[in-house]
Amino acid sequence: MSASPLHREHTPPPDAPVPSPHSDPPPHPARRTRRDLCAVGAALALFAVAALVGHLLHTADTLLLRWPPLYARWEPHVGPGTPAALTFAALAVAYGPPLAHRLPWRRLLLVAWGGAMAWTWSLALVDGWRHGVAGQLTSKHEYLRSVDDVHDIGATLRTFTDHILLDAPDNWPAHVAGHPPGALLTFVGLDRIGLAGGGWAAAWCVTVGTSATVAVLVTLRTLCGEGTARRAAPFLVLAPAAIWVGVSADGYFAAVAAWAVALLALSAGRAVRAPRAVALGSGLLLGWTFYLSYGLTLMVLPAVAVLVVARTARPVPYVLLGTVPWVVVFTAAGFWWYEGYTTLVERYYQGAAGVRPYSYYVWANLAAQVAVVGAATVAGLRRAAEVRRGALVVLLAGVLCAVLVADLSGMSKAETERIWLPFTLWLLPAAALLPERGRRWWLGAQAASALAVNHLFITGW
Fold it and tell me: Cα–Cα distance between 179 and 293 in angstroms, integer?
């Protein structure tokens, strides 16, 4: 990988505000910090209001949540992962920022991936091996319940849509019905190569899911400069979102989507020797995401943001070409994506969506994300709104557009802590905009948030 000429040392940081002789002087650092804290306070207030209103509305037949706005139940506890989680959090807060600054780039990527895995595993094990890891993908709603029903992949694809509706014979479990067949086929593939059961499925989701940290760092370095990527690295490793990466299939989906965006950024930024081949690889991954989750079609919006930052559309034909094989293979095998989606919409409103009130979830979904992204991300997003320019700001805007479309669609009523992981993962780098002074405090707040949620609640999906 060669460095882009856009990132030579004499160029200003891509996300630094551009001075203007007619612009007002920047606010005093103390005033900006107060504004950050006010933004965090407003976000926490939104979460508190969502919790209060949710508990006032809560009945078994309305919100279908035990502790709104989170898909969780209140159960303070500790577990075998608690000592590891506390130790890792302390080490990451103390040594994460200087390591991110000093390590050679390639070594930083490996350390970040390893750190993200350690953090995710330790949080998952707070709930114990059976409940926190091995049993997560074997519940009645999950993919592994249907693995043994797939005897012939061709026949499964031809009849997949026939089993989506609740009143269909032998209807699929909720998560299988709620996704294109690529998600189920992933776990069928693991089973066929001898990696059967919940433990192997969990290991797959955590290992692949945490690699998204590397994909985001590669993207940030290519589009925003290495300094921005290094500042973001500790916040990506110590993310509260790790609670839902370990263990859910959505963490795996998020990583596939993240690598599609990363390859697009490398191609668009001409940071590789074969940009067309890399764009084709981006298309292959993007096409696969469309057959993992219907909602991941919205990753087109962050992808457009990448092209806007790079000021080029050169990769687009190759990206589109990369998606074609998946469309051809699945359609030829008998699964038509659009038919599957429209049938899912009907199934969705046969079940929870027909009961859960849109008027609550359209804003409570956003409140739930406060627990996913943490206080540092909220403060970083406030600073992005203040700066209003730069590569990182454009990328964040593209991701926020995807979240808003998903929210307004009505196809995400609750459980968005995991469902929106492919989007919220990309909001975490907003913390790179926070000043160096006080960065450890913000990082500590991220760790404290994750530890509190994981030890006070039993999260589920």
Answer: 5
